[in-house]
Write a structure and sequence with these properties.
By secondary structure, the protein is of the alpha+beta class. It is built from eleven helices and 21 strands. The protein has helices at residues 13-24, 55-58, 75-78, 80-96, 135-148, 203-212, 236-239, 310-320, 355-361, 365-378, 427-442; strands at 6-9, 32-35, 63-65, 105-107, 121-122, 127-129, 152-154, 157-163, 171-180, 183-191, 193-196, 222-231, 247-251, 256-264, 268-275, 278-285, 295-304, 327-330, 348-351, 387-394, 415-417. The strands form five sheets. The protein has an eight-stranded mixed β-sheet. The longest helix has 17 residues, at 80-96. The two termini are 14 Å apart. The structure holds flavin-adenine dinucleotide.
């Protein structure tokens, strides 16, 4: 039987796992072409963080999360049991091409501590640690395997145009191949099926296609809140159990949930982000001991379902929290905003109360205030010794609507979206989505 020609855009975690599943099951490698704007694992440089073989996963922290509530959506499409089975396949692949598979270990989280329980859930989940130092070797072994199986790779080739509607019934892709020294060569290919796995580095291209083809999208929630900061000592009891702790609260009947997000400790800094001309806040930690400030910061992110035009709503709320072109800071004990890791003051205007939060979020502001109140009960020394930078916001990019059975676009059944280009936010989910698509093609 003649097999379809499959073109995969993006040699990232999702694309590579898809190709592997296909050839493992006898799909002819010479019917698969993987196009990537980055380089093969033999040529890729450490500073090329987002592009090349295994994509952003190739130079990542190598932590494979192993729970369906982390790293984006998978169980939504295929159910819990299938999601875990797909995760296992991804982890098996990383072990299979690992020079020392016996060193891949799963960290074993402890049960939620009693002192948290009355007020918060604490999200603890297993993580497989591949080891950052081994990712490069894994990449080479994995790449060699696919090349041996006959898979074609087009490196340094950026796809800039895709025609899903070609009158001849195939998909047409165009772009350019980088020949080095600024020389570019026009590139064109066709395929019967397309797996689109361009990751974060290709997010704009994904948006462009969504607009060009007027693709239906999933309704998205609002994600907005504040960046909370306090001396680390108040949280030490919890940090000892879970360094990057994730507290959460759910109000399902109201369509609202809150979680602490991206916790930084030891040398923890708040950073102003500029998005769409406004200032919002985020945090990061430094590894170097000379930066130690014994502070903790984390986002308190509130997810609100069912808001009409969530993007516009969030933009409006963010605007209301700006004064003189920067965001706002409030502390009940008159703490002063911290310094950045470069020693400058974090850009913000100090306010005397939480009124701006309520101006921006209306009654939703109460959820954040209550979250903080409950933290003062769980962490008794905290009291008023904290401050909040307002706002922290995540603008969720539109996610194309796909057939849950195989992740193909509802409008074009031979085009599959996978990985961070769909709804993933991590290695395990991205790889599993690629595998899921390959399984459907094999059927
Ligand atoms: C520094 C860093 C550390 C991380 N650490 C972790 C971690 O420890 N654990 C975890 O779970 N996740 C981590 N992540 C996130 C994880 O790497 C991604 O979620 C995952 O790699 C997404 O897989 P993907 O296949 O969707 O995209 P990617 O792996 O990003 O691959 C996309 C590929 O598409 C290519 N591409 C994009 N646009 C085009 C185009 N137009 N034409 C041709 N090629 C194109 C890119 O070159 C890239 O190779 C990290 C990310 C970064 C940046």
């Amino acid at each position: 039987m003649v097999k379809d020609k499959i073109v995969i855009v993006g040699a990232g975690v999702a694309g590579v796992n898809a190709a592997t599943k296909l050839v493992d099951n006898g799909y002819p490698g010479d019917k698969i072409t993987i196009i990537d704007m980055g380089k093969s694992p033999y040529e890729r440089k450490p500073e090329e963080v987002m592009t090349g073989f295994l994509g952003a996963g190739g130079w990542s922290d190598g932590k494979l999360t192993y729970h369906t509530s982390i790293g984006g959506h998978l169980s939504k499409y295929c159910g819990e049991d299938k999601a875990m089975e797909l995760f296992d396949q991804v982890i098996t692949n990383f072990k299979r091409f690992h020079p020392k598979p016996e060193e891949v270990q799963c960290s074993d989280p402890q049960a939620e501590p009693d002192f948290i329980k009355p007020y918060f859930g604490l999200r603890l989940f297993p993580v497989w640690h591949v080891g950052t130092d081994y990712l490069h070797e894994i990449g080479k072994n994995w790449y060699d395997y696919l090349v041996d199986k006959g898979v074609n790779f087009e490196w340094k080739t950026k796809v800039t145009y895709i025609d899903f509607n070609n009158p001849h019934g195939y998909i047409l892709l165009e772009g350019f191949k980088n020949r080095g020294g600024g020389e570019k060569e026009h590139y064109m290919t066709t395929g019967d099926k397309l797996i689109f796995g361009v990751g974060k580095s290709g997010i704009d291209f994904g948006k462009q296609l969504a607009e060009q083809y007027n693709l239906a999208t999933e309704p998205k929630p609002v994600q907005i809140g504040v960046r909370f900061e306090a001396p680390q000592k108040h949280f030490q009891k919890l940090i000892d159990i879970s360094y990057d702790f994730k507290l959460y609260k759910k109000f399902e009947d109201k369509g609202v949930s809150l979680r602490s997000f991206c916790t930084n400790n030891n040398a923890a800094y708040v950073a102003a982000e500029h998005t769409y001309g406004d200032v919002s806040y985020n945090g990061h930690a430094k590894k170097d001991e000379t930066y130690r400030n014994d502070m903790t910061n984390f986002g308190i992110l509130m997810e609100i379902q069912g808001i009409d035009k969530p993007f516009d709503w969030s933009r409006e709320a963010v605007k209301k929290l700006q004064i003189n072109g920067v965001g706002t800071y409030y502390s009940p004990s008159d703490r002063t905003p911290s310094k950045t890791s470069e020693g400058d003051s974090v850009k913000c205007v100090k306010v005397d109360n939480t009124e701006p939060l309520f101006d921006a979020l209306g009654e939703y502001g109460n959820y954040i205030v209550d979250f903080i109140k409950d933290m003062t009960k769980v962490f008794p020394t905290l009291g008023d010794d904290w401050g909040i930078y307002m706002p922290e916001v995540k603008y969720l990019s539109p996610e194309p609507l796909v057939d849950y059975q195989n992740l193909s676009l509802t409008k074009y059944s031979n085009v599959y979206f996978v990985g961070d280009a769909l709804s993933a936010r991590g290695i395990t989910v991205s790889g599993a989505q690629g595998t899921y698509v390959a399984e459907s093609i094999l059927k």
